[in-house]
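Repro case for the chain-ordering regression, as requested:
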Amino acid sequence: MTPVLFFIAAIGAISGAIGVVTLRNPFYSVLCLAFHLVSLAALFLLLRAEFVAAGQVVVYAGAVMVLYVFVVAYVGGGEQLPSGGVLKVLGPLFALALAIELCIAMLGSGLAGIKGKGAPFIPGFGTPKHIGALFLTTYLFPFEAASILLLIAAVGAVVLARRRRGLERDEEAELRVRAPRPAYTGTMAEAAGIRPAAHEQEPQPEVEPVGGPAHSPGGW
Amino acid sequence: MAIGWYLVVSALIFCIGAGGVLARRNPLVILLCLELMLNGANLALVAFARMWGTETGQVFALIVMVVAAAEVTVGLGLIVAIYRRRMPIDVDELSELHG
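-- result from build under test --
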């Protein structure tokens, strides 16, 4: 049973990876990556890493993929870029050479454990209990460092992606702010009496003075 | 299954990701390919953890996932910033920094 599951998951993971690299539309690439991640979680389960598999599905296939999908939707998938020159050929060649080299290194390493099925079964191996105990005792410092890293990344992303003021004038937003609301639409200013309501309004000239509503105490 | 099979799969995933980083020009897809490389490394770490019967490799894999999440957040923030500045989303065109 295990070999069947392994080959299904491995073929899923590798085909997902190939899909990520080859598909032209970034949205399909993201979907392929989600498929790849779920297949990889199955491989983790076969390796008795339950907690890592759960984290993979929740963090990666859940949260990170949602982030990707939103950014792809925002940026708009991008136009289909023309294939780029030399690296288009050299990239796959390099990848092939690297794969051959890695396989030779692994098979030639003579590690005794590679041919075995791993250590004998330990009860509770890879459960959240064991991993959590390790994180809070032996690996406390990496754990805390990871939390600080996540905080820094969150702040950095907000700083990077926010709308900057002063660098460029956003004409459209300025127009939107300056344009007056149509009168008597029930604004707070009308209710508070700052802006005269409909029945006590004197007839106004049709032509708005330049920048007039911005100076008037009422407005939108 | 022998541990070597898992290592072969992880090497293949890593190489596919590396080829994608080199060949693709959309920074979004390059980030996806970086994820592939990190996942290949993760699979190797978990396989070695299984081989030795210790959970240290799994702890390392979890830390790698944290680092990957941080990298994705900052990378996607950069892409959104590039898009806001109306610059082309193409790594070959974005060559301002080297003059």
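Ordering looks correct now. The mean pLDDT of chain A is 80.
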